[in-house]
Predict the structure of Cell cycle control protein.
Amino acid sequence: MKRTSEESQSRLPDNSALKQQQLPAYRLQLTATGVLSGFFATGVFCLGVGIILILSAKSIKEIEIKYTKICGNCAKLREDATNFDKECTCSIPFYLSETMQGNVYMYYKLYGFYQNLYRYILSRSNSQLMGTDLKDVGTCAPFSKSHDGTPIAPCGAIANSIFNDTIILSYNLNSSIPIEVPMLRSGITWWTDKYVKFQNPRSKNLSIAFAGTTKPPSWAKPVYELDKEDPENNGFLNDDFIVWMRAAAFPTFKKLYRRLNRIQYFTEGLPAGNYSFNITYNFPVTRFRGEKSVVLSTLTWSGGSNLFLGLAYTVTGAVTWLAFFSMMAIHLMLKDRKMFFTQPAIKSSFKKKSRKQRMNSEVTNRAKDL
């Protein structure tokens, strides 16, 4: 008996406020005034933020030029895979009516390219991209090894289908010889991608580090020769390669390609005038009925020219206000009905009380007589 009592006492929780569930608690008492005030304030906040975001997005200057049909001859040439070694260029002149002040960014935009396919996203080797094991290509099918069994670096369907058009922006100064607009190819990636997810093998000579591997089938040059001007922009740390490897969620997307180097005639941005895009057409899109375009755009504190966030806030604020006015109308209607029914109820209660008092007095009187 003593053992059983000791065991039962040992299983008892400590005599503390937490384990005895005696902590002080607060039960929120919701009133009609508090709920209506909360809905009203939320609606004002969402509408205000939505209008500010929409105005900010509208202030962005952007120009987009689709060049798939303009460069139709090059598109037909790229339909035949045997013409991969033939270069095809086209020039697209355009006029910029207003100055694009501040930082200007160049994007390439694809229509109808599904980067979000499950097998496409999985076709990559993270250990290889980290530079730890270049021959780890087990998850890169169908672009894991070449015909002779040599591992591909970088392997996978995403790397093999990299966007490889070359786009050069030229500015016609005073209708004279066009000058090339200085563009920077660095600083276009996410910091986590550049310094965490992608790393080159630990070697001073990348050609030696990538020995024993071969380039992807659709590439014209190996990964360690992507940028001849900047040796630091080669291998898995190439900015264009890192930007492409971040898969898009929708079939229509744009990715950052270059950013304006604000020097010489472009210290304040892109001045108004005549420009032209000189494009080396390499990336085929007509097979899957896609399209390509070039986008020049400025940015604001809220990001790009996407109106989705502003519209989402505005719609949320409008729905919240609609709920506020609906609940207020219902509250006022119920309040009027309550006032209407309270007076008869009070009179009936007084009648019931008087009857009870009479009955009680009669009972006491009879008891006294007895």
Notes: The two ends are 62 Å apart (CA to CA). The chain has a mean pLDDT of 87. Residues 36 and 324 are 6 Å apart (CA to CA).
